[in-house]
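Record type: monomer structure entry
Structure origin: computed from sequence
Chain ID: A
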Amino acid sequence: MIQIDELRAEKDMKIISLGSHSGIIQSMLDYDFLIGKQQPSIMAIVASGRKQERYFWGQSEVIIPVVSGLEKLTQQQQRACTGFINVQSARRVLSSSKQAFELLPNLKVGSIFAEQTPEFHTLEILKLAKQRNILIVGPSSVGILLPGRFKLGAIGGTQHAQISAANIISPGNCAVVSTSGGIVNELIHTVTSAGLGLSFGLALGGDRFPLTSPADALLLAEADPQTKRIVYFGELGGVDEYEIAKLIEQKKLTKELIVYIAGTVAELFETPPQFGHAKAFAATHDESASAKKDILREAGATVCETFADVASTLALYKNEMREVVSDTIGERHKSLIVSHISGDRHGETSLLGSDLLTTIERQSMASLVLSMLLGVQIDSQRAINFTDYVLRMLVDHGPYVSGAINTIVAARAGKDLVSSLAAGMLTIGPRFGGAINDAADNWLAGVQEEIAARTFTENFAKKGVAIPGIGHKKYRVDLPDPRVQALLQFAGNTNGDRYLMFARSVEHVTTAKKDILILNVDGAIAAIMLDILESELGYGQEQLKELVDIEFFNALFVLSRSIGFTAHYLDQRRHDEGLLRLSPETVRYIE
């Protein structure tokens, strides 16, 4: 098993939370902040249904990424992780912990929070942890605390004021080991209230088969050069204390041991009662609290008859008292909105990480648009040039399309600019303007799933729907769309243009059926933008899928075409031909 001083040498512990527990995670981040870390120790949260979670970092806030599984982390992130906290339900503890052992090669420490974990699952985890030389506590554990280094779990408190009051920021020389999660915090408080510092704290959990046994935990304290004495809390049930007594007698445990064993009240009952923890049941006299106290006292441990005696015993070491650390966080309130685009810094407008004037002076409109749409500063000139070209190409396709018509009708009805523009924008959808996003979704799926172009085409034919990005009423194979030809100047990307090549292979199949089923402007923009995002900006397929899901590709059309609609509105208002009304000849009434 890895030793405490080896964990103490890990100055920058990186932790993954298996499952989400806001109270525990926030307390760990508060501890990181209070001990002076520059960034959170928690790298990511494994959970479903969201992409990120927001937590306080002192008075400010930080975003912790959420992934659906550890396999979604990069290899660099997997290698960086040295600890995990498992707060998932008991039925998922084994599978998620096994995945952590398999995918996190540098794992050193872990804690399992769930109660009622099946015992055969715990034994399987124990076997794997021993093979990997990992210190792991639980199940039913509130965690591990190594002052000045990390807090893994709820141990030490879940409120920043509690953490500060507990005086567990700087290390001392007294180890606390407890089978009870609630009592471990009481013991830590008792130690620090006596003016002593904590070298480390372990909450072992009260299950019948803890992943770290009390004897093993005390041997960790024995081997830790920073630990001078040990405070141990045990309970009735089991034979752990007999193993501890044997270690003392064999001189394998030589450091001062202060012990409190709970459960003597059980001896007042005719039939032994079951206490709160699974292990806290004395089936025989040897498992009783009194018998355990006797055996430990005979071995040479300092055995306290009451919990108050623990404080009295520790009070003998007042000469080792330390300064109390005050709470430096104070009251805080969670922000209603988080923006990665813009905000206010000291009274100045900030855009994409810099003040507004600095940002706009160094960027073109296309550079600014692409950076804002992606939420990060983009410096790839190829990506910027393509965005500029697309925005100019999509700006207007005539007054005949539904969006322009609606804008014109509203303008001639005397409506204001915003109302007329909204009337046109509301027509954008699957039949007008939405094809770029749909095409991107299909090209991405085709490449990702390695679908043959013919199979891809037949799937759409079976559904009886058109392929987004394919087909044009005017242009055909022998009369190609000059706009598509112009877009192809942006081919030749480092990923081999695999999305464009897939789109062209689909075109090859569709044009064999009908010569107007060519790759159109929407399909070409979608394919080339995918290639550029992958090649120039390093976007993976999951990131590209996310852009599809949030309609990034449609945003290019919406942004550009709003200029065209606005131009049509102004054009109509300038000439003011009055209300547009259809003549009876343009409408056929069928009874």
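Annotation 1: The chain has a mean pLDDT of 92.
Annotation 2: The longest helix spans residues 552-575.
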